[in-house]
């Protein structure tokens, strides 16, 4: 969680520094793509605040109404962030771009636009390096895409995606704005805005997919299931593990239920002792499994 906050704070600082300058530059130079970039940075700033709020809420202690805690608050707010990126970031950028393609205006004072874009690229690039470095610490040698798909902590890669989309958008705007200005094709400024919007839509769909899966109760990986089955069946009292039910309450908390067939000759006390042994073994081997419910078959 500490690593998540570090990358989120760096992204928040970068977006706060550049959002206002983008809007000022866009209004001053009649650039729709700069306005789109300003919208992008504003949405990103809001997203970082929502992620920080989600992280704080997810660590709230269990109570009577939520006996398993509030861990899934993080997944909910990550899903909200993906919706904001889609609607406010992608949707408004595409709309702004289409308006300027239909009614193009030649960009003026392009020098100041490039000053803002280059500074933004430096800030966003720095934030991307920090968030990528923090995400690399969680990959454990896996490929990037495999790590994202298997990750149970969407906040860890959400900032990477946002920063990556920001850097890609800035590069697109710099290229198309320059070409449009040099060859007097003002429509390219609107095209750049549309491309920025489509990048954000693509990112939002990936984030929504991963957040939705976790919010709906995604369980442990198949290989982890197999290991837990072997651990439980190593106990002398167990005949067979009939089923495993699991769900991630948060990136650091798993609820696990085992349905186990115990040997017929065991009495209640022996079964209770076996349940305690299996519970301790599983929790010792898998620290993320905080709750282990064992149901005799």
Automatic annotation (TrEMBL):
It is found in: Membrane. One of its GO terms (cellular component) is membrane. Keywords: Membrane, Transmembrane, Transmembrane helix, Transport. The keyword Manganese does not apply. The chain crosses the membrane at residues 7-28, 74-98, 110-130, 157-184, 190-208. Signal peptide: none annotated. One of its GO terms (biological process) is zinc ion transport. Residues 10-216 form the Cation efflux protein transmembrane domain. It is a multi-pass membrane protein. NCBIfam families: CDF. This is Cation transporter. It comes from Chryseobacterium cheonjiense.
């Amino acid at each position: 969680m500490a690593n998540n906050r570090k990358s989120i704070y760096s992204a928040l600082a970068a977006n706060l520094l550049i959002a206002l300058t983008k809007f000022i530059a866009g209004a001053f130079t009649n650039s729709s793509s700069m306005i789109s970039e300003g919208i992008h940075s504003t949405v990103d700033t809001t997203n970082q605040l929502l992620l920080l709020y989600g992280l704080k809420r997810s660590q709230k202690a269990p109570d009577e109404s939520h006996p398993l805690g509030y861990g899934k608050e993080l997944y909910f707010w990550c899903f909200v962030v993906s919706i904001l990126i889609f609607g406010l970031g992608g949707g408004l950028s595409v709309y702004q771009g289409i308006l300027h393609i239909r009614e193009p205006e030649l960009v003026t004072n392009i020098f100041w636009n490039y000053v803002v874009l280059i500074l933004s690229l430096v800030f966003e690039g720095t934030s991307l390096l920090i968030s990528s470095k923090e995400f690399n610490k969680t990959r454990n040698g896996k490929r990037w895409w495999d790590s994202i798909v298997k990750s149970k902590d969407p906040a860890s890669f959400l900032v990477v995606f946002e920063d990556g989309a920001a850097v890609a958008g800035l590069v697109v705007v710099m290229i198309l704005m320059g070409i449009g200005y040099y060859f007097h094709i003002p429509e390219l400024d609107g095209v750049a805005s549309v491309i920025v919007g489509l990048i954000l839509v693509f990112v939002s769909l990936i984030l929504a997919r991963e957040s939705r899966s976790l919010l709906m109760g995604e369980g442990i990986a198949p290989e982890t299931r197999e290991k837990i089955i072997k651990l439980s069946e190593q106990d002398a009292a167990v005949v067979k593990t009939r089923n495993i039910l699991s769900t991630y309450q948060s990136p650091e908390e798993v609820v696990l239920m085992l349905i186990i067939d115990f040997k017929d000759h065991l009495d209640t006390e022996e079964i209770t002792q076996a349940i305690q042994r299996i519970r301790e073994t599983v929790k010792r081997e898998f620290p993320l499994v905080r709750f282990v419910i064992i149901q005799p078959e």
